[in-house]
Design goal:
With about 220 residues, this protein is α/β, with parallel strands linked by helices. The chain has helices at about 15-25, 50-65, 100-110, 120-125, 135-140, 155-160, 165-170, 185-190, 200-210; strands spanning about 1-10, 30-35, 85, 115-120, 140-145, 170-175. It has one domain (about 1-210): HUPs (Rossmann fold, 3-Layer(aba) Sandwich), CATH 3.40.50. Helix 2 packs antiparallel against helix 9 (about 200-210).
Amino acid sequence: MRVAFFGGTFDPIHRGHLRLASAAADAFALDRVLFAPVGNQPLKAESAVASFADRLEMARLACNPAPLQPTTSNQQPATDPRFAVSTLDAPRADGTPNYTVDSLAALARELPSASLYVLTGADSFLDLGRWRSPDRLLELAEWIVVSRPDFPLSESQLAPLALTPAQRARVHLLTTVNEEVSATDLRRRLQVGDPCHGLLPPGVASYIQSHHLYR
């Protein structure tokens, strides 16, 4: 079984997250993509706008399995049955940060026979030196690194990470996703009453409206 850990703030989860996860699942034959909203992000000074409970529920609404339907570039992507939600990065009782290395170690114990992957953006991966135990992270899982349209990734950019040949072999680049949706931009638009049609899963859009989030 091939399982990808997809951590992030998901504030809110949007079309770009879902399309990225589907593309990775297709390209690397993933059986499951685990969306894991983070409780306490150690590398970001600002905290999430929505609560963890709200972000977790929005992720659940976005990942609720439904029959796949063809979509056009302007339609909301169909929900993928390979998607699931994880609480591995839920807030800790003592308020300490959530570290991906701890979450991956827990996932490895939970799924000892699975091949583990981490799905992340290029900008985050290039900051790997600031993550806790980067060598251990590369031991626990292979990495699927997505080049964003405004952040293309090249081999020369990976050079400062000084990856060994064995580590580099566990890093895979995904360059086929051209999705420019930004959670920061969505929050700005939602704050002024823009419903962001087509950019949010329908259940997420309804949840945001009914709970008056980002206003």
